[in-house]
Design brief:
Elements: H1 3-13, H2 15-20, H3 22-25, H4 29-37, E1 44-47, H5 54-59, E2 65-70, H6 73-82, E3 89-93, E4 106-112, H7 121-131, E5 132-144, H8 149-162, H9 172-181, E6 184-197, H10 198-203, H11 209-220, H12 224-229, E7 233-235, E8 238-253
Parallel strand pairs: 1-2, 1-4, 2-3, 4-5
Antiparallel strand pairs: 5-8, 6-8, 7-8
Length: about 250
Amino acid sequence: MKEKEYVQHVFSKNKDAYVTSSTHSTGSDLPLITKWLKPQPNMTIIDIATGGGHVAKQLSPYVDSVIATDITREMLENTALHLTSFTNIDYVVADAEDLPFLDNAFDIATCRIAAHHFPNPEKFISEVHRVLKPNGDFLLIDNVASEKPEYDVFYNSLEKMRDYSHVRSLKISEWKQLISQNNLSIVDQQLRKKTLPYEAWINRTMDTKESMDQVSSFIINAPEELQHYYQIEIADEMIQSFTIDEWIVLCKKK
């Protein structure tokens, strides 16, 4: 099974979990999206890898139309059912690395908590630049790896163990290089810690005790330095929560 087929399999199987997940549906970054983008009534937006449709839902009241795309048809169909009252959102099955839209088509492009599933992030950023109008805005939100190699390896290994559709969370330095290479300029950015409730996080993608135990053991046996950095909370020998790094960046097409 190829990487993109992994994504389709995982997300079709867990489509409801991504609609209801507190990490995705109630993140404090959602109001920030509106504040940073300043959407206007005449704008058309593309939300790439929309998942549960949370960004599309957040922005649709402020703009003319939103195109919500996702590579997983079952996920998109399920999201559309949950958002039937938002009449200016259209749904298109699309690969983030090969968008079926004309050049210079959108005022704003967004992608939230999804890019770590993309096998070729350089193609994704190139496509974002292509479909954006001149001076259009691009807002990317994603989990990022630390610049420290051992932290990078730990976090990406953990995510891959928990979710085989995970490809890689890039470092901020890697994202900045791709952004610069594709004639996008950074307008604003924020790095923050995001707390993940452990039980919801692991149950979203895993369904056997053996695999869950493997992940738990990997975390509990991590070096103290890593446990401190990721703020791993353990009570009664059970992992309660941990934090990861999330980067929010607003770019403009030059």
